[in-house]
Structure formats: structure tokens, C-alpha cells
# Entry
Amino acid sequence: TKLILLDSLLQEIRMVCGPNNPGMELDLAWIQQVRVNLPAVKRRADTLTTKRTVKQQWQAGWLLRAVTCIDLTTLAGDDTPSNTARLALKAAKPIRPDLIKAMDAEGLNITCGAVCVYPSRVKETVQFLNKYGASQIPVAAVATGFPSGQYSLDTRLQEIKMAVAAGAREIDIVINRTLALQHNWEELYNEVVEMKKACGDAHMKSILAIGELATMENVYKASLVCMMAGSDFIKTSTGKEGVNATLPVGLVMCRAIREYFEKTGFIVGFKPAGGIRTAKDAMAWLILIKEELGDDWLNNQLFRIGASGLLTDIERQLFHWVTGRYAAAHELAMS
Amino acid sequence: METVKKTTSPSVSEVFNSMEYGPALESDKVAAAWLDDHDRKFGLFINNEWVHPEERKFYETKSPGSGEFLAKTTQGNSDDVETAVCAAKEAHKSWSTLSGHERSKYLYSIARHVQKHSRLIAVVEALDNGKSIRETRDADIPTVIRHLYYYAGWAQLMEETLPGWESVGVIGAIVPWNFPLMLLCWKVAPALAMGNTVVLKPATYTRLSALLFAEICAEAGLPKGVFNVITGGGAMGQILAEHRLVDKVAFTGSTEIGKVLRMATAGTGKKISLELGGKSPVVVYHNADLDSAVESVVDAIWFNQGQVCSAGSKLLVQEPVFDKFIEKLKVRLGHFRIGKTMDKTIDMAAIVDESQRKSVAEYVEGAREEGADVFQVEVPEGCFYPPTLITGVNTASRVVMEEIFGPVLVALPFRTAKEAIAIANNTLYGLGASVHSEQLPLALETAKNIQAGSVWINCHNMFDAAAGFGGYKQSGFGRDGGREGLFEYAKPGWQTSEIVSKPDVDFKKFGTAYEGGAPTINGSNGEHTAVDRTYKLYYGGAQKRPDGNYCRTVRSAEGKVMAQVGDSNRKDVRNAVEAAVKAQPGWAKKSPFNRQQILYYIAENLEQRKKEFAGILEEMTGVTSDEAAEELEKCIERLFYWAGYADKYGGTVQETQLYGTVIKIHEPLGVIGIVCPDKNPLLSFVSLMAPAIARSNAVVMVPSEKYPLAALGLYQIFETSDLPGGVVNILTGGRDHLTKYLAEHQNVDGMWCFTSRNAATFVENASAVNVKRTWVGYGKDRKWMDDQQGQGEEFLYHSVQVKNVWLTMGDIFAN
# Structure
């Protein structure tokens, strides 16, 4: 009967499309019973890609899907309108049109999932996207004292509001790792609830910065807390920590999303970010999502990859699929 | 450059929308080329050459997944067994005298050549067996290579690690179809390392990888005759096992055939190791990482289509999470992909043969008829069977009790750890087990208490050459892998290997005669000693009157009546075994220090009374007083020797590839029946008893029938040495009579017999019924006074069984 229940829930999301998480009261008892066995998690993560692979047109189709899930990102101190403009256009036209044509895939209108920048760069990025006729692509802004989060709650909330005002439709917040490491789940929950409020209509992705959470149990618990607090997505990393998006961490977070869904019926998206550079990596992440969360999560409404260089590698693979030749870097537009 | 339109079906856009997996086929070109090189017709591989004896039938090998014809292989007969065994015997002369380093170089060379051909081997193996190419590539072949490297090391180190041991001779290896190459390598690598030569009979369904491996060995430079492969029907296995020049039988396969081979070789002097069936439990506690435990179950029962001896086929889940866990499993199975052998993106491929598929299906149908809930997912047409989860069954269900050898999991709830252990052990088998919990003390205690050769904590079906694999109870004896695996292919150098044909023993009649009731009134003619000496039986820590209430008279060397001893019958055996079974767990739970103290104390008390004991020996056996005194000194030394070992043979850490620790634990067998020889009646008794109890076994001792007195007198010493009741039990009487009932007792775990060859034959034959471990002397002489023969690692080997506990480790992944 539970299976049937799960099936009917899945039917529902097909109609809902996208995250649907009103959040809930903090349930500490649930959080306390979390158990994660790291060696077993690693083993599952290692064998995911030995048990599954895609070749030929399946690989091409999957690669295009991956492109649509990319939050094309630049998060550097030296970002200026020169490179955000380049990024915006590449997000709008991620794959060379002749390749798309050869694959007979024009109808898919392939673009990236979003463009992800610092708050100060939001305004211009929105303008660039409008200019390139790609206003449907949302701009995501990192916020709340990115990447460390070591600032007062007031200024962190203020950042969110300013980024939303500047036109960001998605906000990637960082959680307070101090609270997570102190297992102060209540305080963490309260902060994230405040942040969600500050986001208003903008989608909120909560970055756990897993490389600073010490254990997989903390990763799982922080995932639950963020979801209970109403996050639309949970995200692995800022890209600035020592360890970022690894498959074992992704597996743990996906399992948390699944459990949250099974218990509440609420749907939360997932975004790995940091260190995902190759087409092969992207395939591994799609396999993970398909196996652990199912096909309903395999779209940019519920799955994003935070990356920059990844797109070029995917484009290179598609070039090879289409032409049978390996591309030179200069043959593909840089982002 | 112009790009040209690529049209495919499905189109890229369709895949983009459906996000389905497509096929990812491995090419079988390389295997086809090899088969074609042999005109798809194979002979036997003997003396590094293809032999094509005339007028043999052929067996057509087909790939189970596709039904595609692969090749014809020869149906050999007894002449071919003769040729191959003689070749191996001849090769043994030179191979066994090579230095360890030379043998090591050959094994290393084979390993390198296997690595070189690993793709070809993986493809051949997958095609032949039907299992997925992913598994042969990622599991079977890497394990094969690892074994060859590992035993190349032992070949080099043999002289140092097993001083005084030497090769056994010609090994007759018989292996099954589930891991054709891997399991043959588990036999061949240690066998060659220890200086043996091998004749291998692969399973009927899967012969190709063995033939390919033989060719590769030859290419690697292995001298001719060292490794030979003969193919043929099932009967050929028995012909090989019974061949007069085969010194040892190494078997992996069903418990049924294992028993047949044990009986067929009883009394012949052949060594035998049996790796048999299983019904391995997977225990999931409420505090496990349930999502990870689900994956562990996948590895446990759906690896290799469940055709694994150590398959975790009996799932035990703690009640509070039972329903939740079963739901998780069902959801997981919904993602299963079952398909072509050569497809790299499937979870399960074909079953080895239609007959096997039918047998699995019959089990499941039977369960359905009994009202069980059967959950299955869809499979393609052909020789496939779906992964199956059965609930609503219990301990008395056939599918819970019997090995199915297919992808069928039965699930039962339990309440407490104690109950989980009880259900886990409620089986004839004891090969593998896994325990899932995030609570280490609980997981370890459970692992300690489950009777199985391999226990995996938070994982299942991990294998490595450095950790021995093999069973408890009816899962067999002997280990494949590890240092423990060396003993299956080596023997103490002083022992001669003389194989005889199976002695003609009437098993129905052997030992049935109970001689109790013979007249024992001897006092009237003045022979009686001044003070009446009537010994009783000793079991459960007390002196007991024999059930039949009969005695037998023990006479001195000069024929005078010395004493009366009890004449035991089968009921006394029953009572003594019951006492031993009751006492053994407590004895094993005592600290090694405590057992050691008791052994020293026995020695100390014997020391105080050694003159008295020497006197008895002298009078009873007619040895000189010097000889008797010497035997007493040796007894005391032996007790010291084994007291020393009471806390020094607990096990070691195995150096596997696991990130974590694999702990080898030397566990006691349990209850051992020991029948002592007449020679050195006190010393042989002590030499056999002491290692057994030092290593936590309880024993039922049968002292020399002719000279029981000194040994029997020890019970007074035990009583004053704090030895707990039931640890050592002594039964006097007709030794063959007692041998019979001990060997036939299902609750006796091991049987040591140092009397006649007929008794040895009986013991080995009768022990087959519950696959008891045996150690027999075949009536041959053993010099108990000689330390080389009367103590040493041979005794330890027989006193313990190896359990390997796999402990994964790790919680640190970042800061």
C-alpha cells in the first residue's frame, strides 16, 4: 500500500513540476535518528557508475539534458560586466547551433538552467540576458555572507533582499556552519526560516558547505533542517571548501530528499556544485539522480549542477558524437 | 567543417525527453576469435598440450543469455583421468622440489599473463556462464589476479612460514559453475604455491574459462603437467576423486555432492576440503543506516543472480523497521535492470541454465502455494529469473530452510539481538553472514555469535585472497584463501602420503557390538588387588555409573586384574555429548588467561602425583619405570606447551584490500570426540585433549581401550584443578562402539580418531552425514614422545575453525 501511495505522490509531482516545499515545524526526533554509514555510502557511489552507463544517442540526449541543468557560474573577486556578459550569452546559446542542428534538436531550445553570480553582478546579468533574448533564464545570486556565512544575521538577510530587488529569481544561501557543527539545529532552522522569508518569491537553494560539516550524519541532518525550514533546493557546496560535490555526499543528500518526500509529500530539488568539470562527471550525477530519486527529478526544475568549465567539456563530447572528431578548444565559444 | 545530420532511433530529442538508459554492449569479438582459433572444439589440456582422445562424445556449450552456440568440449572418461593424473604425478616430482622462489616466479608470471588477457577472460567467462560482463570484469577476474599474486607470495615464504611442511601431491580439484575461473583459482593458486600439481575438472555448464586459463598458464611458462584440465560429466568428478594417485580432493559445490565425495574417499588417506552450500543470514538492526543496508542486501542476494554460495538469502530485520525496510527494498527493485550478459548497464543477467532456472522457480511456486507473499519485477524472455523478495514465511518454511541458489530473498522479522542470532544459526549451514548496525558493540557481539566462516559488518559478499573463505557446519571445512588456506595443500613433512583404496568396512556392523555383560567376576582366584579399584565414567564434571551398569576388567601387563572400568554404551555417549554441549559455550567465554591457568594447574597437580601415574603406566603397559617417568614428564611438558598456546592463537589481522580491518578469529569447533590410541596411553590422551580444550573446545575422550587407567585417573586431577564440569568428559569401554556413536552424533562438531584404519574409515564415512571435521591416524604410527609429531601447528589447525570478520571503517570525508 505504501508503494501505491508513493506512486500516486509521484503522479502528483509530474503535474506540479518544480519544488513544492512549504516546510514544516522542526522535528528534532526525526533528526536524532539519522544514521549514515560512510563506507557503505562510498561503495554505492563507486558502483553507481560501474553498473550504469549511457552510450551513443543516449549519451548525446543525456548530455543535452545536463546542459539544461547547469547553473552557469562565475563567483570570483575579479568578475566584471565583461565576463558576466560572456557568461549570459553562453548560457543562452550553450551549444554550437550546427551541432544542435545535426542532432535535430533545435526544437528542444537548449539553454542552461540559470546564471549564477555574486549579488553585485545580478543587475547587469539580468540586463544581459534580457538583451540576448533569454529573459526566461533566471539569475541566481549567492548570498548570506557567501562563502563562509560568518556575518551577522541582519546583514545576511539584507543581502538576500537586495539581490532579489536587483532581479535575482533564485537565491543560493549558505548555512551557518558554526551552528551545524554545534548541533544547534533549532537555531539553524530559525535562521533558514528567516532567510526563506527574505527570499519572498525567489527560489531558495540552501548551500550546506558539506566540506565543513565533518560527518555524513551532519550532512543528512543539515539537509533535513534546511528542508523543514522550507528550502526549495539543497545544494552541496560553495565551491570554495576543501571538499565539494562528491558522489557520496550527493547520495546522502538525495536520500535525505527522498525520505523527506516520503514522509511529507514535499518536493525539494538538489544542486551539486564544485568540482564537476567533465561530461563523465555530469553523467554520473544524472545516474545518481535517476537511481536514487527517479526520473521526476531529472530536469532543471528539480536538479541543477553548479559549474563553469563543465559546459565546454559537454560541448566537446557532443562535437565528437556529431562529427566523429575531437574538437580543438578554440573551435567552441568560451564562456 | 560541415556537420552532417545524425539520425538515430530513438532520436537524441526522444532520449532527452525520456531520459531512458540505452544498451551499452561489450563486444564479444575477442572471445569469438579465441573460440574460432580452436575451431570451436576443445580437447583436454594435459601436459601443456591439447589432447584429443578418439571416440569421445562432445558437449555443446551455449551462452545461457542468448542461447548462442559457443563451442564443443570433450566428454572425457576414466582413461583421460588416468592420463591427466599420471601427468600431474610425474610433474610433481620436479615441481615439488623447486625452491619457493622458483614457484613464486611461475605464479607471478601466470598473474601477469592473466592481467594481460583480462578482457578476453572476462568476456569468455560472461558468455559461458551467462553472468554480466560487468561482474566478470569488476569482480571475478580482479579476484583471480589478486589470488595469483597473493599465493605467489606464499610460495616464496613457504619455508619460513611453514617450516617442516611439504606439498601433499596431486590435487584433484572439482569446481562449480557459479564462479568458474575464480573458484578454480582459489584452489590452483595455493596448491601450486605449496608445491602440488593439479588436475582440474570444471563444471559441465562452464568449461571454457578453465581451458583458456590452462592455455594461459602454458603461455606463462608453467612446466608441463603441473596444471591439467579434463572435461567431462558429473561422474568424472568422482572418478578423479577416487583415483589412486590423487592425494587430495579440493571441492567446491553442493553439500550433497560434498558428502558423496567425503564418503567415497573415507579411509583412503586422501586429504579433502569441502566448500559447500549456504543459507546465509543478513541481519538488519533498527539502528542501521537502512538505505545503505538496502544496497548491502543487493550485494548479498542479487550479485551473480544469487548463484553465490555465501548469498545472503535469509534477511532478518528488527521488528520496528521491518515494514519500512521491506518497502525500501521493493522501491529499490523497481529500479533493477535485468538483461543481456554483454550489456554493461544491467544489474542481473541470465541464470546459468534452464534447469537451474526451473529449480529456482519451483521453490518460489512452492512458497506461493504455502501462502507466502512474493514480490517480483519483470524480466525479459529467456533464461532469466526476476529478483524475488518473499515475506510472510517463517523458520519452518522450505524457502527459509533450504538453499535456493537463485535471486530469491526471504525476509523474517525478529525482536531482539538474541533472537536474531538464534534465527541466524537455525540452519544446517554456516558459510557467510552479515550484520547491519551503526552500534559497534552490538554488531561485533552478533558477528561473534553467528556461526559462519565469513561475517561482514555493514556489507556482504566481499572477497579477498588474504581472507580465507569457507564454512562452519554443513557448509564444509577447509578454507580458500589466507594463510589458513595453506593447510589444505600442505602436510607435516614426517607424514607419508600413502593412498589406499577405500577399506572394506561394513558400516552397518562396525562398532555395533556392545561387549558389556561379559563376566567380570575375577576375585575368587586370588588375582584381585588388595584395595578395590573401580573407575566410573566421567562426564558433566561428575563420576557416573555406566548406563548399562556393566564394567570391564583392566589387566596389568602380567595379566593380573588391575581395576574395573565402566563399559559405556550409546546412552553414555549421548549423556557425555550433552554435558559437553552444555559446557562448551561457557568454557569459550572464559578468558584465555583463565583457561591457561587451569591447564597449568592440571600440570601442577599431575606433577605432584606423577609417581603414582607412572606406577600405573608401568604396571599396566609393562614399560620400564624410566620410560613411564619419561612419559609423565612429557605429559607435564605438553600441558605447559598448550597452556602457553591458550592465549596465543586467537587470530590475526588479514591484509585485504578493504579500507578497514578484517579480523581472523580462531574459533573452537565446539564439541570434539577424541578416540585415543593404545600407544603412550597417557601422553597421547594429554596431547590430544590439551590443544582441544586450550582452544575452547569441549571434548568427549575415549582413552585407550586396552590401557585406560592412567588417563581415566586424570579426572581426579581435573576435579582439583578448577576445570569446569563438562569440558572434558571421559568414556571407557569398547572403542569402536564409542567411535561409532560419537561419529554418528549430529551434535559432535569434530571427530579425532587415532585407532585402526577401519575406525578411521568409519569415522570419515559417518562424519559425512553432518559434514563433521575429522582428524584420523589411519592406524599409522605416531611418535607421541617426539615433539615434531606430538604437538605443533597441526594440532592447532584441527582445534580451531577460522572466522573472518570484515569491518569496514570510516567516517571522515572532509574537514
